[in-house]
Amino acid sequence: MKKRGVGMGCMWYGVGNTGLPNPAGAHVDILDDGTVLVLTGCADIGQGSDTALAQIAAEEIGVRYEDVRVVSADTGVTPDAGATSASRQTYISGNAVRSAARAAKQLILETAAEMLGVSQEEIIAGDRLLKVRAASGKSQAFTDCQSECRVGLGLDSGSDTREVSIAEVIAKCRMKGKLTLGHGWYNPDTTGLDAETGQGRPYATYAFATQVAEVEVDEDTGEVTVLRVVAAHDVGRAINPRNVEGQIEGGCAIGMGYALMEEIKLQEGNVLNCNFATYLLPTSLDVPEIYPLIVEDPEKTGPFGAKGVGEPALIPTAAAIANAVYDAVGVRITDLPITPDKILAKLKEKQNKGA
User: Fold this and answer.
1) Secondary structure (3-state) at 343
2) Average predicted confidence (pLDDT) for the chain
3) CATH: 3.30.365.10, 3.40.640.10, 3.40.50.300, 3.40.630.10. Which one for 2-15+206-354?
4) Of 204, 291, 305, 352, which sits most exposed with the smallest number of CB within 10 A?
5) What is the dihedral of CA 274, 275, 280, 282, to 10 degrees?
6) pLDDT tens, 194-240?
7) Is residue 81 within 8 Å of 93, Cβ to Cβ?
């Protein structure tokens, strides 16, 4: 007989290394044509960090995503950004890239302010342009309406647009011999753990998640089938929602393997299942329906409010599945993986106790 059950798993996870120096650096160069070069030691191993860092640089400087080229993890030219581990790169390298982009942007703001005849504080950047903010007390819509009316009445030739392209500003900078380079780095504000009390501030921020799994358990064979997983994750601000969803889905798949399949078998110190033919991993046919839910509670210390999501997506999955198995057949498995043999043994034990 097959029975269904639902289980929940919750977790919190520190982003970064435990109370240790955890810095990352970055260089940003705004080139002659207004495009941007980002140099970062952050290694993109499939999690999409190059994409996120390009978006962060584009947003800070005011260009488009396609204007940014990222050179990453090249020890010949990129500054150190630490390991791609501990779900730290979007948060830590993201802050470093934003700091470097801000430094480079400051150089073009100085020149743009001269060109527009305003203070730097009056300039906003976006869509490859540097514009003068709307006058205080007037809405942007009112200012735009004024501009349209002036053009419509032939009172404005368009020469005083109160905006200038970033490429034009870069050209002016080059005429002055000014390079538009920025360097930035970030190290989270943490303290080490006290050796006696265990007290300290090991992480600058934390990720939180709750996942719910629905499973079907065959009481005759002990086989567990995961039918669906709903995974809600607080990611701060999702720099790239599609990447975040991909991280969550991938983490759930790995967590499912951890819960049900992956087991290292040892004999006298030797690994007996040291290849993919004998060490079982989930395939695409095993992965259930996964519903990622992005919860955005911006982190004030993160780049545009972002924080890590890599490992948190995997952590609660096994607990949710184990709880779902208990809900389905009433046996508690406390060691992983939850194999058919373990379930059948527990069911037999339960039956004997009942008899």
Assistant:
1) helix
2) 91
3) 3.30.365.10
4) 352
5) 130
6) 889 989 999 999 999 999 999 999 999 999 999 999 999 999 999 99
7) yes
Cβ atoms of residues 71 and 39 within 8 Å:
yes
* 311 given a catalytic annotation: yes
The reply to whether 2-15+206-354 and 26-183 are identical in fold is yes
Q: How far is CA 247 from CA 99, 160, 177, 308, in A?
A: 25, 47, 44, 10
Domain ranges (residues) in the chain: 2-15+206-354, 26-183
As beta bridge partners, residue 214 has 6, 228
* 17-65 pLDDT, tens digit each: 887 889 999 999 999 999 999 999 999 999 999 999 999 999 999 999 9
Tokens 């302010």 belong to: 113
Q: Is the peptide bond before 337 cis (omega within 30 degrees of 0)?
A: yes
26-183: CATH, from 3.30.465.10, 1.10.1660.10, 3.30.365.10, 3.30.2350.10: 3.30.365.10
CB 347 within 8 A of CB 221: no
Interatomic CA distance for residues 231 and 288, integer angstroms: 12
Residue numbers of the chain with a pLDDT score lower than 70: 135-161, 355
Please state, in angstroms and rounded to a whole number, the distance separating the CA atoms of residues 168 and 178: 13
Q: Residue 161: what pLDDT?
A: 58
Catalytic residue among 59, 214, 245, 311: 311
Tokens 């150190």 correspond to what residue?
80
